[in-house]
Amino acid sequence: MILGEGVVYCDACSAAHTCMPRDWGTEARWQSGYAADCNSVYAGSIPTLASIFSCHARVVELVDTGDLKSPARKSVPVRVRPRAPSMSKHNSTLNLWQRLASVPAGKWLFSRLVCFKAPYFASIRPRFQVLRPGNSVVTIRKRRSVTNHIGTVHAIAICNLAEIAAGTMTEVTVPGDYRWIPKGMTVEYLRKAETDLTAVAEISPVPTFEGTFELPVNVVVTDTGNQVVFRAVINMWVSPRKRG
Q1: Cys-Cys crosslink for 146: which of 25, 114, 157, 187, Cβ 3.0 to 4.6 Å?
Q2: Tens-digit pLDDT profile for residues 17-29
């Protein structure tokens, strides 16, 4: 509820606060503001909101960018509300996938970008086929460079396949204010891997993220005959990101 210029009614604590304008750049279509004396409002999720203050408000009302550029405008009336828990911030990876997956060579490009970020995985040349919260499908081809002395896909190459499938899927599953890291991995080698391979990583059901906990990710790797050659459980240590 707008009370007047430079003042907002805070949905978090039901009080009026002075709201100062921020981010007056030419690209800004949303006016970013913060409630200077409210400790119950978290940082907003819109891109133009800087997170350098301890207490912020999320803007939910458009304002005129031309008006924002006016030097005479010292404060702007905006409506704010607390940021509801969301998974939007983890979506930089997921959004990239969604943009690329449907275009020619997009899955290849996304897979290369993941390997650019984590170069070790490039040795197996993974190809993402499916990526969404709670599920991913990644394939590799049987090439000489990933085989062992008996001509089957090397055990460590399969572990790498399982880890990139589980790790990238975890990245797009956990909320943006959480972080994760692999803590342990239990594997079963069930038969020789003599063909191209497909890894399916799953979290089912996707949990409620609260506090610090261990998140098991199940991975099954199959060959072209749909025979299971490998199973793994990768335990991810999930914890809230430190604020500051």
Answers
A1: 157
A2: 444 443 333 333 3
